């Protein structure tokens, strides 16, 4: 049984004080749920969020990491530092890292390996651009990103793994994938994992949909057979909107 995961990616939003305010309000609105909830604030808020979330059942994650464990990498943050702040998850290969920061597939793979080595659960983000979808290249792009990202990962490690399907054209645009598009991509990803890493691994891996998820469309997306949760950007910044997403899914 796959436990649904609803994740908030705050990107470059919220100071530590605003993070604290969000958590206080959210905990009142959603005192408990059977879904797993994940908050991914910006680096400076992680430590404070980690302290506030302890014992609440809400998991903490980071939005990125550096592949090396330590060293002269000014401005970078290692997996071990994230663990020290209380993180259990880390996003890897988010579309904004791939496209705005020009991160290639092999860097994404090294980050993923570093996350696993430190005991963090990676959320591997994959998805095609609008041009790639129009060219009929969606599956080819997903295949490349999955193949590169998961190449050296042992099947047993995948049980802790999350894949987020986020079509780039749906991120922050207000344009959500249709239920058909989201289900088709999620099912394709699960089949790919089954094929490569075994049936039980494919059955266990959690696949999220991300891209303009909001309180009005979340329940429809989460009802899809192969969609096990959501990665929410803009609509996760407001505690009541994020609470409506979590509660509206009825889980
Ligand atoms: P969005 O972002 O919900 O604002 O589209 C999703 C994401 O980037 O994870």
Can you offer a commentary on this structure?
Helix content is 43%, strand content 15%. With 251 residues, the chain is an alpha/beta fold. It has a single domain (5-248), classed as Alpha-Beta Barrel (TIM Barrel), CATH 3.20.20. An eight-stranded parallel β-barrel has the order 1-2-3-4-5-6-7-8, surrounded by four helices. Helix 10 links the parallel strand 7 (206-210) and strand 8. Helix 1 (16-29) runs parallel beside helix 2 (43-53). It is globular, with a radius of gyration of 17 Å. The model has no long low-confidence stretch (mean pLDDT 94). Residues 9, 166, 171-172, 210-213, 231-235 line the site of 2-phosphoglycolic acid.
Quick recap:
This protein has helices spanning 16-29, 43-53, 79-84, 95-99, 105-117, 130-134, 138-150, 179-197, 199-204, 218-222, 239-248; strands at residues 5-9, 36-40, 59-62, 89-92, 121-126, 162-165, 206-210, 229-232.
